[in-house]
Specification:
Length: about 400
């Protein structure tokens, strides 16, 4: 008797071993495919920088002294494709006093694709292109902030083709990053309040020039940390587009975040009733409805900055634009109400709730209304209703003292 080779019992172990090898090979290929797929869909890849730096991990054992032996010498440069020069000098003293230097971070923790000299080739069209290739290194440690910037107006400008849209290093610099928060309190350092508008002024200088001469800007320059800077109104990393209807409708919340704070406003004798009085009038009620029901819709009802200004906010008693000056207030009203006459502003109670000091006539009329007229009218009506009900019950009882005789006869 002979056995077919394929069905021979002695071939079964060999076939099992071969199948096992094929199975292991198949599993290995699947694992590699899944790994590659996972890397492609990882959070780092999902938020991949627009100008990606090489993710290759450099030799972290390199000490900063090795890098600074060349880059710490003034005059170290490289030519770019457009003929411009990229300065490669890093001031050792400046870096050591930066937040990264103070915490002991090494050069190669950011420049991960760079190893020992000679370095891998690096090319850039111009200095802006070089910055756009290098700034994604911030993502490795600051992924949350980096991802927030992807929804900002700066990122949208970048996507629209404006390569000057701000990136991390435009605001924070590359090697001289200053600590914004005080490590002891966690709050913004007093001197950092002044850094912020000066940083924004690098691109928005015309706005900064307006701001620095306003009630907020002048106070900030004089060392007052209570006043708002750019980021208090516009945000930090996820800066929204201030030209949208949604921003306009939400803007009263920005202003009231400071102006409804009693601790802050009491220092300057400013009323904290601004939100209550605004929302209770026709303008504020309408804006609030739009904000809740149709946040993207356009409305011609005024918000705070329509009356007070945007970046050019002056003191309320300023003779040129201050709204406490009657003529200035009338001019502001006439922007929306061109037929407004000289007595038109008298119908507005400003942002004060009537009191013996502010609008006393309205205050005493309100007292009369709430504590005399309403109690007398409603109370009198209540007494009449009770008296009428009592009389009707008495009349019914007298008419049928023992119940209805007619009803009794039917029973």
């Amino acid at each position: 008797m002979s056995f077919n080779h394929e069905t021979s019992p002695r071939s079964a172990p060999r076939r099992a071993a071969a199948n096992k090898k094929l199975l292991l090979l198949f599993c290995g290929l699947c694992a590699c495919a899944l790994l590659l797929l996972g890397l492609g869909n990882s959070p780092a890849a999902a938020a991949a920088p627009r100008q990606e730096a090489s993710p290759t991990l450099g030799p972290l054992s390199l000490d900063d002294s090795y890098c600074l032996s060349c880059h710490g010498q003034p005059g170290s440069t490289m030519k770019l494709e457009d003929g411009s020069t990229l300065d490669l000098f890093v001031d050792p003293n400046e870096y050591s006093h930066s937040i990264h230097g103070e915490k002991g971070y090494a050069c190669v923790q950011c420049h991960r694709q760079i190893g020992e000299y000679p370095h891998a080739p690096f090319t850039a069209k111009d200095r802006r292109d070089a910055a756009l290739q290098l700034y994604p290194a911030c993502y490795f440690c600051h992924s949350g902030e980096y991802e927030a910037t992807q929804d900002s107006v700066h990122a949208r400008a970048f996507d629209a083709g404006n390569k000057e849209g701000a990136v991390c290093t435009d605001c924070h610099t590359a090697h001289a990053v200053r600590p914004i928060n005080d490590p002891a309190t966690g709050k913004i350092r007093p001197d950092a309040h002044l850094w912020i508008p000066e940083t924004c002024a690098q691109c928005h200088n015309a706005i900064y020039q307006k701001y620095r001469n306003t009630v907020h800007g002048e106070a900030l320059i004089n060392g007052n940390p209570d006043v708002p800077t750019c980021i208090d109104c516009h945000g930090v990393h996820n800066i929204s587009d201030p030209t949208t209807n949604q921003f306009r409708l939400n803007s009263p919340d920005i202003c009231t975040s400071c102006h409804t704070d009693p601790k802050r406003m009491d220092k300057y004798g400013i009323s904290t009733d601004v939100l209550t009085t605004y929302v209770s009038d026709f303008h504020g009620t309408t804006v609030t409805l739009f904000e809740k029901q149709a946040p993207d819709a356009q409305t011609n009802k005024p918000v705070c900055y329509d009356c007070h200004g945007v970046h050019d906010i002056l003191r309320v008693d300023d003779p040129q634009k201050g709204l406490h000056v009657r003529e200035n207030l009338l001019k502001r009203c006439q922007v929306c109400h061109p037929d407004a006459t000289a007595d038109f502003p008298d119908s507005w109670l400003s942002h004060y709730i009537p009191s013996p000091d502010k609008y006393p006539m309205v205050y005493y009329v309100n007292l009369f209304y709430y504590f005399f007229l309403i109690p007398v009218v409603l109370g009198g009506m209540g007494v009449l209703v009770v008296m009428d009900f009592g009389r009707s019950m008495i009349n019914r009882f007298r008419k049928n003292p023992g119940g209805s005789s007619e009803e009794a006869s039917h029973v």
